[in-house]
Protein: Putative acetyltransferase
Organism: Labilithrix luteola
Amino acid sequence: MNVVVRPALLSEVADVQRIGVEADERFVEVGHPELADGSTMPTEAAEKAIASGRLLVAETVEGRVVGWSYVGRIGGELCLGQISVALAYGRCGVGTALLRAIIEGAKAAGEPSIVLNTQADVPWNLPWYERHGFRVIEREAWTPELERIAVEQSASGLDWANRVHMRLALR
């Protein structure tokens, strides 16, 4: 599918929120209803991410927003926080276009790596990231920041028995 990946606009916050909730519904079918709790990126957080250029959208040639990605930082490292794609556009290359844009932007900015955390037991997560060069970070190699993320996510109800941190080395 042909999409343009570009920075999100403030007028698209509702689209980002709707797509995020919709995309999370897929986790129910693979045994992770805790990831489909109806929560979304808070409006204020989305607005801040847009202002700092950390929220991208994928737009069709017709001008419809069909996916988005968010990046932040964990410690000094670039962190891919989320990629969400509208259900009707899944498995059409939208997520890949978003991921490639993040990777290319990170390379252009001189970032040494990108880190993320994801479900290892979900077919469209870990294997997909591995195909794009991400590798699981073994527990003994976690930075204090990665450890903190795991602790915080566990406290909020995510089971780290099936979650992993992954890293893509860019240099």
In short: Helices lie at 13-24, 43-51, 94-108, 126-131, 144-155.
